[in-house]
Amino acid sequence: MRKTTLLRVAAATIAALLTATACNSRRGEDAQDTAAGGACKGQQTTGITDKTIKLGGIYPLSGPASAYGTISKGVAAYFKYVNDKGGIDGRKVEFVVRDDGYQPPKAVEEARRLVEREKVFAVFQTLGTPSTAAVWDYLNQQKVPQPFVATGASVWGTDDKHPWTIGWQPNYVAEARVYAKYLKDRMPKAEVAVLYQNDDFGKDLLGGFRTALAGSGVKVVATESYEVTDPSVSAQMASLARSKADVLLDITTPKFGSQALAADAKNTKWNPLHIVNNVASSAAVLRPVGFENVQGVVSATYFKDPADPQWADDPEVKTYKKALHAYAPDADPANQFNAYGWAVASSLYQALDAMKCPTREGLRDAVRDLKDVKVGMLLPGVTLSTAPGDAFPIETMQLMRFKGERWQLFGKPVDTRKEFGPLTK
Question: Which UniProt keywords apply (predicted)?
């Protein structure tokens, strides 16, 4: 798969850092890091003992994407809940969170800190395509698992040179396919305007959308990009409005998602169907715009919305809300980012519990051998599945529409593997 300029720059940055630290960086197999014996003999046990597992996470707790930072609270609450229940196979989890401010060079610094100073077992959850791209060469060379990264870039599943890294959420191409199918079925002659972030995230989803529309009557008639350092997207939205498109596809991170939704609401002369990508669909993004101004907006999801009354009696959602109040009292249970953190942490629990060897190699292999694994916070019909040649754990999503003060699911879950075929390496 062709790497973009961002990935090439990140790789060059990492190469320079690795050269500078080659003399004192461990390459994964210290003499003491040997499993007890048998098939596991010689594998890495850094960060794991019979009683503990030490995990690291890198999130933008500050900076332009800080809205995502609360995901770490959902993750931490889950691990604290599990610890109080006896841990994972008897092991208590220590979760070390570092802030990269959504800056790739800072992500590199924090990844090295977690591996070389904190001696973590795995770097679970690097958030964002730029930060993940900046550190995956380093982590793979160090043979440190990088499971379930918090980004849907398709490269995490199509690149076979980084076996220690894998995604979790539906990749951006899969998400784009869901929107494309919806438009082809419901608005077969639609004209679409697209606002997208000018990086691998935005280009990946836009590219997948164009490909999924091929041969249909739905056309992309206008596109505008923005940089994460831009103060606003008002100029881009004004330009897109002039297209008079029937649909606005909004491929943004939370800050810019709010801005785009607000600009759309103010422009009474343009009334497109507004589709906002999943990563900017949280109520925390919509609330500042005013719920009355986002009625009818469409998105897609794959896990249960804790604010949706239909899940009020759901055992997992009830456990999540109770645990969040107990272990992260400053975190809003209705915030979907917190629910995301809970869901991805419980997915890692499944992988850790399934390890054939209690080693880094054991986790690397476990996340690539998932067989329709059920996770309580995922929607009915959505499971985790990976296999040789398929490194995308989740590829099923369901559409939702904002009505009143919450999202409401509609239609049936769309398994994009079956609808469009698997993404291949």
Answer: Signal
